[in-house]
Specification:
Distance between the termini of chain B: 30 Å
Number of helices of chain B: 17
Helix content of chain B: 55-70%
Bound molecules: protoporphyrin IX containing FE
Distance between the termini of chain A: 14 Å
Strand content of chain A: under 5%
Shape of chain B: globular
Strand content of chain B: under 5%
Shape of chain A: globular
Strand order of the largest sheet of chain B: 1-2
Structural class of chain B: mainly alpha
Largest interface: A-B, 54 and 61 residues
Order of helices and strands of chain B: HHEHHHHHHHHEHHHHHHH
Oligomer: heterodimer
């Protein structure tokens, strides 16, 4: 019996390794260049968002990215929710009201604009994809709702990308309105460099270096992609703890029960 | 299995049981004699049943909020992830549950291959199991299309296009499958309908699978028939139930690790980009559990040939009970088969790896060799081995596998420790 208990551990240790191996090998094909790395507060089993980074990140998104990129699956009310930037209700209402929202039709059948409310979705910079492409030299600035999950190692990738503008190496042919970027596949991107030192002025007095802004906005975008990340980590920790205790209890019950058989003969 | 006729104790019980023998069924399951020497590779059947139920329950909840329409599906999944209470949990359970389901089924199938569980008198169990496996692949493939991301769309396009390889009627069949001239909303709605239906078919087959199992009873690591029920078996309850529960809980810990801490590692990032018929992803890859067959498909230069060979790779498993000519079930007593078994395992893993790579250069060559070997294993090695192999002497019974021969005892031990 004893030896059998060991089996299960082997089986179950090997199997996930196998999957991870396959997955890594899938992933390996795209890794071209080492991404810039930074410490993310949301990584790891106990990972949580840094509240002030989220608030600053929203500011960067709003002032530096929202003119081209939408976040269609976020609503202003999300800004107040637990596990997010946790703006106060007043602040969020103020943010929402600073945008003009198209509403209607009214009783006369006319469309009209009004200040945004908490229940409104983030307003989009362009009415449709064609308009967005037209304004950006034929490239669509992707919606940012799940952008972090839509790229491999998304947080580090976006962080690297927005810091990765360089002069093209000698002999690298590049068209007008296309920019050289170290991390973009193919090294050519139709998004200009947006982050420059001092671009935004943080309310909390943090110095707006390029790295700082990049880190903040990526933290914000990670939350936008995974708004329940904190709840997920917390629940997961409890679930696993509970299962471990249960496993121990079941293990000893099993030994007890099987001991009847093993001593009989 | 010889069991005494069961009669409920109470009058009411007798009345009920003589009209609908549910109590007899419960009694049978309770007392079902199970070989004492089962190891943990035998716990995966229970794990599979559990995961089927998890998929059905989480799927039902998802279906309450999901919208099967090309313009709305992606958004409805995001709605589930963001606004539905614990929607993120339900969806991650369902998506990762499907991977765990396949992990378990692969272990379960290789267990059968190692211990010869598909051989007489268990051919029906094996065949029903294979039908379940095929339905699982179809279900998971269609489920993967539902979130309507880039990989969803392009996987659906690639796989449905395979049918166009059928001579004469191919084109019409694909149009019929799509409900139009390309993958679109009509395709999505029918996939959703079928994705909803098939798990219940699987459930029905699982009942048949277990029914068929309860006729001859379980195989066991030694692979010989039970001689004496009282000495060599234990009742299902509580001995096997508690052991299955223990294994299930450990499996659930791994499952939770995926669901709560890396819920997206097994998926493809491209599936978080909404489907776009105008943009083809650089590499179209299916989910990991279908990769070996994808590799086989692509290793054949001809489209129709590829489809035929891929389906053959699945269907050949159905004939395994007759392709294997050996009288001995368990690989424990088959020194050569044991080696070929592990080579097959490696071969399938290699195929999975190749399936994730672009079909060019070295990858294509390795893929072809691995594909050929896969068929050689079943068509040549299995039948020939049965005649040529010198198997080790079998013990008289599972309870005392000794017979004065130290060798066999130790070989069983090494097996249990693997
Ligand atoms: C054999 C059992 C099942 C398997 C293997 C399975 C597999 C899958 C897979 C792989 C996905 C895609 C997950 C993703 O990447 O998001 C999916 C999605 C889905 N499944 Fe299932 N499923 C099963 C049973 C069911 C049942 C019984 C239902 C409904 C009653 C259901 C409803 C759904 C819905 C609505 C979605 C779309 C939502 C989403 O993508 O998360 N599933 N399924």
């Amino acid at each position: 019996m004893q030896k059998k208990f060991k089996n299960i551990f082997k089986v179950l240790c090997i199997s996930p390794l196998l999957i991870i191996f396959i997955n890594l090998s899938v992933a390996a094909e795209v890794s071209r260049i080492d991404l810039l790395k930074t410490n993310w507060s949301f990584e790891g089993i106990f990972g949580k968002f840094d509240r002030s980074a989220l608030q600053r990140g929203y500011q960067v998104y709003n002032e530096a990215c929202s003119s081209c990129h939408s976040i269609q699956y976020l609503s202003y009310r999300n800004l107040t929710e637990k596990g997010g930037p946790e703006f106060s209700e007043e602040q969020a209402k103020e943010i929402a009201a600073s945008f003009e929202v198209m509403d209607g039709p009214n009783s006369e059948g006319e469309m009209f604009t009004r200040p945004g409310r908490l229940s409104d979705q983030f307003i989009k910079p362009y009415p449709n994809i064609e308009a967005a492409k037209f304004a950006n030299g034929g490239a669509y600035p992707p919606d940012m709702s799940v952008l972090v999950k839509a790229r491999k190692d998304g947080a580090n990738y976006i962080y690297s990308l927005i810091l990765g503008y360089e002069d093209p190496p000698a002999g690298f042919e590049i068209e007008d309105d296309v920019y050289y970027n170290k991390y973009m596949p193919g090294n050519q991107i139709k998004m200009p460099k947006v982050l420059n030192k001092g671009l935004v002025e943080y309310a909390d007095g943090t110095e707006a270096t390029e790295q700082q802004m990049a880190k903040d906005v990526v933290t914000f975008l990670t939350w936008a992609s995974e708004p329940h990340l904190e709840a997920r980590h917390k629940t997961g920790f409890k679930v696993i703890l509970y299962l471990l205790v249960l496993v121990a209890l079941v293990y000893f019950s099993m030994k007890k029960i099987w001991s009847r058989i093993e001593t009989k003969q | 299995m010889s069991e005494e006729k069961y009669v409920p104790k109470s009058k009411l019980g007798q009345w009920f049981d003589s009209r609908l023998p549910l109590l007899t069924l419960a009694h049978h399951i309770n007392d079902y004699p199970t070989p004492k020497n089962l190891n943990y590779w035998w716990t995966f059947g229970g794990i599979l049943t559990f995961f089927l139920i998890v998929q059905i329950i989480t799927g039902l909840v998802l279906a309450m909020h999901y919208v099967a329409h090309a313009d709305l599906a992606f958004g409805s999944v995001e709605h589930i992830m963001r606004d539905v209470n614990y929607g993120w949990l339900i969806r991650y359970l369902h998506a990762n549950g499907s991977s765990m389901f396949f992990l378990a089924v692969y272990i379960h199938i290789f267990r059968a291959l190692f211990y010869g569980s598909y051989k007489a008198p268990r051919e029906m169990i094996w065949i029903i199991g294979m039908l379940i496996y095929m339905l699982m692949m179809a279900t998971a493939f269609m489920g993967y299309v539902l979130p309507w991301g880039q990989m969803s769309f392009w996987a659906a396009t690639v796989i449905t296009n395979l049918f166009s390889a059928i001579p004469l009627v191919g084109e019409s069949i694909t149009t019929w499958l799509w409900g139009g001239y390309a993958v679109g909303s009509p395709t999505l709605t029918r996939f959703f309908s079928l994705h909803y239906l098939m798990p219940f078919l699987i459930f029905g087959l699982v009942i048949l699978h277990i029914w068929a199992l309860h006729i001859p009873g379980n195989n066991n690591p030694v692979g010989i028939d039970i001689k004496q029920l009282s000495k060599e078996t234990v009742p299902f309850h509580p001995y096997i139930i508690i052991k299955d529960l223990y294994a299930l809980l450990i499996f659930l810990i791994i499952f939770s690790g995926f669901v709560f801490f890396v819920p997206n590692v097994l998926g493809h990032p491209d599936n978080y980009i909404e489907a776009n018929p105008m943009i083809t992803p650089t590499h179209i890859v299916p989910e990991w559990y279908l990769l070996p067959f994808y590799a086989i498909l692509r290793s054949i230069p001809d489209k129709l040939g590829g489809v035929v060979v891929m389906f053959a790779a699945v269907f050949i498993l159905m004939f395994l009970p007759w392709l294997d000519t050996s009288k001995v079930r368990s690989a424990v007593f088959r020194p050569l088969y044991k080696i070929f078994f592990w080579i097959l395992v490696i071969d399938v893993i290699v195929l999975g790896y190749i399936g994730a790579k672009p079909p060019e250069g070295m990858y294509l060559i390795i893929g072809r060799i691995a594909t050929i070997y896969y068929f050689v294993h079943f068509i040549l090695i299995m039948p020939i081995l049965g005649f040529k192999e010198k198997t080790k002497p079998l013990p008289l019974s599972i309870s005392d596998p000794v017979l004065g021969d130290e060798d066999k005892l130790s070989s069983e031990k090494t097996m249990n420790n693997r």
